[in-house]
Amino acid sequence: MLCDIHHHIVYGVDDGAKSLDVAKQMLHAAARQGVGEICCTSHCTPGYRHFDTDAYFRRLEELQSAAEQEGIDIALFPGMEILYTERTLEYLSSGKAFGLNRSRNVLIEFMPETPFMLIKRAVMDLSNAGYTPVLAHVERYIELTKEKHMLRVKQDGAKLQMNAKTVLDSAALFGNRWTKRVLKNELIDLVASDAHNADKRKCELGDAQKLLEKRLGKERAAFMTNKLPRQLLGR
Ligand SMILES: [Fe+2]
Predict the structure, then answer these.
(1) Residue 96's Cα: distance from chain center in Å?
(2) How large is the average pLDDT for residues 116-139?
(3) Ligand 1 centre distance from Cα of residue 6 (Å)
(4) Which CATH class name applies to 2-232?
(5) For residue range 181-216, what is the model confidence (pLDDT) as tens digits?
(6) How far is the CA of 140 from the centre of ligand 1 (A)?
(7) 83-92 pLDDT tens trace
(8) For residue 199, how many other CB atoms are within 10 A of its CB?
(9) How far is CA 230 from CA 23, 124, 227, in A?
(10) What is the 218 CA–ligand 1 centroid distance (Å)?
């Protein structure tokens, strides 16, 4: 069973699932991909958009019941994908923002053009405050595509997450060589779906895991899609 730590399945709280019906379709899609655990990481933007925590937890419970009713063997865990802003640490310490399965492992995103100095500072500040930053879809940040920068933030305690779709796209004819290289060099720590719906941005984690097995071997693929993600959830 795979463990997906980046998934926008809770409906009506961000740009992920738009309705209970779509969320149920996403559950079925994840099950078909062999996913057994999902961390439901809705977007939280400290200091910008209000996050409706009550609605989030109500719908998380509703979805877990829906999975059980429909015989889908998937366990859901709370989490957030947190935009790094000047208020992120304050939100984390006050509990307005929380980590993966409420742990100190936090899924963090940046704006794509964020300068490396700011990314580095964010990683240091989070690490010094006792958090493990898991950088979401690391392939999106222009400055983090430099391998020396990837190594630097990893040395400072960050884990690097790549999206399943990016892994799969690299298998196309003329697929991205950078993606292949950073996977092979073990610069990417884990892969997650970042699913937003059951259509154009659906869960493809099982397909990515199969490709990783072919390229990197069973053990590395299992580490990236099961072992490390489960550790990050404290499982
Ligand atoms: Fe996301």
Answers:
(1) 19
(2) 98
(3) 6
(4) alpha beta
(5) 999 999 999 999 999 999 999 999 999 999 999 999
(6) 11
(7) 999 999 999 9
(8) 11
(9) 22, 24, 5
(10) 26
> 15: CA distance to ligand 1 center in Å?
9
pLDDT of residue 181: 96
Structure tokens that stand for 104 in this block: 């100190």
- CA 142 – ligand 1 centroid, Å: 17
Tell me, in angstroms, the distance from the centre of ligand 1 to residue 110's CA.
11
User: What is the spatial distance between Cα 224 and Cα 33, in angstroms, rounded to a whole number?
Assistant: 15
Beta bridge pairs of residue 45: 49
Whole-number Å distance, alpha carbon 193 to ligand 1 midpoint, is 8
pTM score, whole prediction: 0.97
Q: Which of 161, 111, 127 is nearest to 3 (CA)?
A: 161
Amino acid making up residue 64: Q
- Residues 6-16, buried b or exposed e (16+ Cβ, 10 A)? bbbbbbbbbeb
Q: Domain locations in the chain?
A: 2-232
13-52 pLDDT, tens digit each: 999 999 999 999 999 999 999 999 999 999 999 999 999 9
